[in-house]
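step 4 of 6: structure.
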Amino acid sequence: MSTLVLLEGADDLSLQALTFARRLDTAVDAIAFGEPPPAPGVRTLHVAEVDGYAPQAWARAIAQLRATTIVAPGSDRGNEVLAHAAVMLDGVLAANVIEANGDEVTRQRWGGSLLEQARLHGDVRLMTVAPHAVAVEPAEGEPAVERFTPQLHDADLVVRAGERVDTSTGGLSLAEAPVVVSGGRGVGSAEGFGALEELAGLLGGVVGCSRAVTSAGWRPHTDQVGQTGTKISPDLYIPCGISGATQHMAGCKGAKKLLAINSDPEAPIMASADYAVIGDVGEIVPAITAELRRVRA
Amino acid sequence: MKLVVCVKRVPLTGGKMVLTADQRAIETRHLGFTVSPHEECGVEEAVRIVEAQGGEVVVVTLGPPEAEEQLREMLALGADRAILLETDGSEWDPEATAAALTEVIEGEAPDLVIFGNESADSGGYQVGIRVAHALGRPVVTGLKALALEDGVLRGQQETGDVYRVPLPAVVSVKEGINLPRYPSVPAKLRARKKPVERRTPTAGPPRLEMVRLVVPEGRGKQAEVLGEGPAAAPAVVELLQRLGVA
């Protein structure tokens, strides 16, 4: 058996995938594109010459290294590239794996709200590693770096990332904010978010929301925290009037502390909350803002 | 312009996952069902394209007979007809799913095939890509914006990365590419009369074989209640100060 890990760069998810791969095999090779990233504990780091990001070309380069176990980060690109590689190698792909042992894996479903134990039947097994499910472990040893130019088919370069449009809004991003104040259906209306904006502003944070809110058109989808929205990891998360459906919880698992404000003490969100205030969001949030202003004055 | 959109029926899970006794499925006796969120946006996107340029939207699903309910919802959203690849309700692995969809799509020969980036339930991240390879078409995933002009698709991901590929092509989209409309009552009535064709494909043994499902252990914590109503504000501010965010 031979184990190969895709390193997208020097990012956390790549290092998590590398830690995962090292648990599977004593000798791990890696592949990267462009600048060689740090690859501690890797035997050989293959650096493929491909111009830019072309998912099928990246997969072709991976396929040419003939590994039997292939690991990648559970990022958009990691999942995409391994799906292409699985087709090229007639392999079996399991996405968002958290544990593997031989041909058995445990993988996430529903954004991590449910786990699946699965068996992979095939000579080539491919896995992406669920984000933040594996703690990065340090390792000794610098890899031997080998550069190569993969043999590409014409079709491999048809899909390629071109220019990048600036999508930043200039402000603090939801994914990186230290404090997120989110509103759900319990906020009552689009106007009700004014009070949340005010509190978030005072705390140096940003406003988020649940899927019910974006579906109602009260807030843009870029504000949505959840399985199909943004995954956040703030120091403090304050969900206001959010019941805590699995769709939402899949997006805020990374929060260090959670303060739920909800009229229903039995709401599912309470099972994930560190702190809670019970009552009407429309009264409580402005009261907190006023109290903050008072103690700061 | 002819478009095929592939959708999946998934349960509306609410706050808690409860499994069936054999641990191979979610207990759905008390749950409603819906279309995976990314895919609903895929149907909305296809309908908007046809509204602007003319053409036809065909919605395809692989699932139990009851999945007709989700196909009717997509017909109410504006799709023209639907194809139901009927199963006995057991789960098909990504390869078997892709093979069955490929056969249907080859017969339809659309200009564009739209998938959701990943299904809400199994989240395998591969059916669309497998179908694209089987069809010999380019595939771009995770699109948050797309436009068609002179036989070329321009797609943009949330990172801002832009792709240009020639049609015919396959794409997957993410929720947020649009806000799906709420179907009107006349649209729902019209949807009842639109054609839903049923076929019964067969699957080989799965290569990604689900053994059993497990509900992950919760954080097992009991929330500390700081108070009730606006009177809790001082306790909250004290907490914010203690956490160093105030």
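step 5 of 6: annotate
 - The longest strand of chain A covers residues 92-101.
 - Chain A touches chain B through 92 residues (CB under 8 Å).
step 6 of 6: archive
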